[in-house]
Specification:
alpha+beta; 2 domains; rod-shaped; binds zinc ion
Length: about 120
Amino acid sequence: MPQYDFRCNSCEARFVVSYKTFDDYETASIQCAECGAADVTRVITRVAIGKSNRDYSKMSSGEMLSVLESGDQRQVDTLFRQVGETSPKKPSSSVSNQPGPQADSARDRAQKSDSD
Ligand SMILES: [Zn+2]
C-alpha cells in the first residue's frame, strides 16, 4: 500500500497518507490532518527505498514512482535494470583506447614490413 508523507504549508504539520491503490493517489485531494488546509507539500522520504537488494520488479507502480521521483540515480538505474527496461549505458570508448592484442600485431607487421 503506497504511503506518502506530506507537510502542511499552513501549520507545518507532518502527516502520512495511505492509499489502497496508486489511482487513489492520483485522484485524491490531500488535506492537512491538523488544520484541514489543502496547501500541502509531499515530502519525499528515502528511507523506504534505501534498502539494498530490493526487488524492484515486484514493486507497485506507486513504489516505482517514488524511486523515480527520489532522483537517486543509482536506485533508478537498478530499478530499470531489474524491470528489464533499457537504461542509459556508459560509453565504452575508454576500453577501445587502450592498446590490445590487435594493436600489438599491427605493430609487429609494421616492423616486419619495415625490415623488408
Ligand atoms: Zn495544517
